[in-house]
């Protein structure tokens, strides 16, 4: 796949700009400059940063996988060119359902209440 990409789009690597982020920090630890740049130029967000540890504390799991995702959604709402926000979730969501449709199901617990209970 990457060989084909390099053949067909030789300059593609130049489009990749790494910026530093920390999901546990306010504003995801992004510098003001990186935030401003993101607001102007990003059209697609792929969000796959998470903890995948089964024995993570509930507080850390919530911070990394729920609160940080909400923060990123808030940032994405300010991105002027945003077309798509893709969140890589997990195979383990809604596993109590026999059939899972491509819809957003109401959460079993109000996430705001869960976040409040951790604070
Ligand atoms: C196309 C056909 C498809 C057919 C599909 C069929 C069936 C599908 C079935 C399932 C589908 C699953 C799809 C998965 C996608 C979901 C996406 C996810 O996010 S799943 C999350 C995955 N997470 C993990 O695998 C992490 C698991 N590990 C942990 O949570 C923790 O490590 C732990 C096991 C709880 C242990 O924690 P502890 O603090 O006690 O120890 P360490 O973390 O330091 O680890 C100790 C030791 O174990 C090694 N380790 C840890 N995890 C794994 C692992 N998953 N596999 C192998 N080894 C592991 C770790 O490296 C350490 O080793 P060492 O001591 O040598 O350093
Ligand atoms: N792998 C798979 O088969 C599947 C994965 N998923 C989902 O995709 C997501 C990612 O999984 P996977 O790629 O396997 O996990 P990894 O652990 O390999 O990657 C997690 C990523 O999140 C980043 N990250 C973790 N903590 C922080 C933090 N505090 N601040 C900033 N970045 C952080 C890590 O950055 P760094 O490396 O710099 O620490 C890393 O790039 C999860 O939500 C998982 O459930 C869903 C289906 C299948």
TrEMBL record:
It catalyses: a long-chain fatty acyl-CoA + 2 NADPH + 2 H(+) = a long-chain primary fatty alcohol + 2 NADP(+) + CoA; 16-methylheptadecanoyl-CoA + 2 NADPH + 2 H(+) = 16-methylheptadecan-1-ol + 2 NADP(+) + CoA; octadecanoyl-CoA + 2 NADPH + 2 H(+) = octadecan-1-ol + 2 NADP(+) + CoA; (9Z,12Z)-octadecadienoyl-CoA + 2 NADPH + 2 H(+) = (9Z,12Z)-octadecadien-1-ol + 2 NADP(+) + CoA. Keywords: Lipid biosynthesis, Lipid metabolism, Membrane, NADP, Oxidoreductase, Peroxisome, Transmembrane, Transmembrane helix. It is a single-pass membrane protein. Residues 11-112 form the Thioester reductase (TE) domain. It is found in: Peroxisome membrane. GO terms for molecular function: alcohol-forming long-chain fatty acyl-CoA reductase activity; alcohol-forming very long-chain fatty acyl-CoA reductase activity. GO terms for cellular component: peroxisomal membrane. The keyword Acyltransferase does not apply. GO terms for biological process: long-chain fatty-acyl-CoA metabolic process. Pfam families: NAD_binding_4. Its EC number is 1.2.1.84. It is an enzyme of class 1 (oxidoreductase). SUPFAM superfamilies: NAD(P)-binding Rossmann-fold domains. Catalyzes the reduction of fatty acyl-CoA to fatty alcohols. Catalyzes the reduction of saturated and unsaturated C16 or C18 fatty acyl-CoA to fatty alcohols. It plays an essential role in the production of ether lipids/plasmalogens which synthesis requires fatty alcohols. In parallel, it is also required for wax monoesters production since fatty alcohols also constitute a substrate for their synthesis. Belongs to the fatty acyl-CoA reductase family. This is Fatty acyl-CoA reductase. It comes from Hymenochirus boettgeri (Congo dwarf clawed frog).
């Amino acid at each position: 796949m990457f060989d084909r990409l390099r053949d067909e789009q030789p300059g593609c690597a130049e489009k990749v700009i790494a910026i530093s982020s920390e999901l546990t920090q306010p504003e995801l630890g992004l510098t003001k400059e990186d935030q401003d740049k993101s607001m102007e130029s990003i059209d697609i967000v792929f969000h796959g940063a998470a903890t995948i540890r089964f024995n993570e504390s509930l507080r850390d799991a919530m911070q990394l996988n729920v609160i940080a995702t909400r923060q990123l959604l808030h940032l994405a709402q300010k991105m002027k060119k945003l077309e798509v926000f893709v969140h890589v979730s997990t195979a383990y969501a809604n596993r109590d359902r026999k059939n899972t449709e491509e819809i957003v199901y109401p959460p079993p617990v109000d996430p705001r209440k869960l976040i409040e209970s951790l604070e």
